[in-house]
Amino acid sequence: MTSVPTSAVRPRSRRRAWLIAAVGVVAALVAVIIIIALVWPRAAAAPGPGIRVLASGTSSAAEAAAAGGGADGLRAAEYLAEQPTAVWLVPESDPLGQVAQRIDELATEARSQSARLAVVVYGLPDRDCGNHSGGGLDAAGYEEWTAEIGDALRAAADVAPIVVLEPDSLALASECVDVGERAALLSTAVDALVGPSTWLYLDGGHSNWHPAAEMAGLIEQVGDLDRVRGFALNVSNYNLTGDEVAYAHTLAAELGGERHALIDTGRNGADAGGEWCNPPGALIGEPGGTIGDDVVDTNLWIKPPGESDGLCNGGPAAGRWWPDGATSLTREVDAD
User: Fold this and answer.
1) Nearest-CA neighbor of 124 among 139, 107, 102?
2) Number of Cα atoms under 13 Å in the Cβ half of residue 60
3) Cα 242 from Cα 335, distance rounded (Å)
4) 335 falls in which pLDDT band (50, 70, 90)?
5) Where are the beta strands (DSSP E) in the chain?
6) Cα angle vertex 266, ends 264, 271, to 5°?
7) DSSP code of 168?
8) What count of other Cβ atoms lies within 10 Å of the Cβ of residue 308?
9) Is residue 48 in some structural domain?
């Protein structure tokens, strides 16, 4: 038998071994990439038309529906409990040390509904200048509280949180506090809350409050606006959607054309004549996720319909469930 020289075999063996090793490395890299893609937090799409946010079973409406009551009030509560609506985080009910658990529970609810989580952070010192929703934290406590919220929201990146930061905080600031100090606190809160899948909106007031140029000046005091998506309009108010869309475009232009808007349409289904505190003729507005353009990301229900604005027009204290108000807001729904 003729022997084959060893030198004639080794190069081919080496090439085969190299190819096998290379394939193994590529396969391992592909596996790692797949694992990272599955578990690594990814930036979610911006809010837009068609979005659905959580309708929490812990809302005031849900609690009122579970409690029962008169037929009209119960129908209103049951209807409103089913509507996707932002959840308000306030230190009185979601204090430091507990708010992270609250967010974790809300995120679990959102996953069960294949929805995104929308929250309102509302705990700024002297938050509404001692009006109907007085209170809030001191500066040090606020920094700790918002830091805990930010950590919890980043841990819930898969539900792409939408955050409305301190409604009325800037639009109202010149009436009661040093605007620069408040803007600095809000800037610190922004730093605490930002995340790769968190969409953050500052207070933008509304179309019947500050001229757009003036409101833009207030927003700009918060500092680097590249940290936020934009501003929220009409929160807890009743202005018609068309007016707010027009104002959003003007305000965005004043801010350089880079920022976007959310509009609260929870209670603006009728012209309230400029009245902001429990106006008698108010109606629920368009469901969330029904509008959007190049400036307005979309609309959401931000202030929960059925909760009072304060001790006015027969309402209870601000934030309390008001059966008569809920019934009135949904009267056309009930008629259908």
Assistant:
1) 139
2) 21
3) 25
4) low
5) 87-89, 118-121, 162-165, 199-203, 230-233, 260-264, 296-300
6) 90
7) T
8) 23
9) no
On whether the CB atoms of residues 225 and 258 are closer than 8 A, the answer is: yes
40-78 pLDDT, tens per residue?
344 689 999 999 999 999 999 999 999 998 898 999 999
Beta bridge partners of 201: 164, 230
Q: Quick one: which of 235, 229, 193 has its CA closest to 99?
A: 193
Amino acid at 258: E
Q: What confidence tier does 13 reach under pLDDT thresholds 50, 70, 90?
A: very low
pTM above 0.90, yes or no: no
Percent helix, strand and coil across the chain, each rounded to 5?
40, 10, 50
Query: According to the model, what pLDDT value does residue 12 have?
Result: 45
Q: How many CB atoms lie within 10 A of CB 109?
A: 18
* C-alpha span between 59 and 196 (Å, rounded): 27
What the block records as the tokens of 305 is 């319909």
Give the amino acid at 208: N
Domain assignment of residue 274, given as a range: 60-335
Active site residues: 128, 168
How many separate domains does the chain show?
Answer: 1
29, 66, 127, 169, 202 from 235: Cα distances, Å: 48, 27, 14, 11, 11
Tell me the C-alpha distance between 304 and 240, whole Å: 17
The number of angstroms, rounded, from the C-alpha of 285 to the middle of its chain's C-alpha atoms is 18
Is 24 inside a domain boundary? no
Residue 115 within a domain? yes
Non-local (6+) Cβ contacts of 101 within 8 A are none
Q: What is the domain-level CATH number for residue 133?
A: 3.20.20.40
**Mean pLDDT (whole number) for 210-220:** 98
**Residue 138: CA count within 13 A, CB half-sphere:** 1
* CB neighbour burial string for 270-304, b if at least 16 within 10 angstroms, e if fewer: bebeebbbbbeebbbbeebbebbeebbbbbbbbbb
In a domain, 212, yes or no: yes
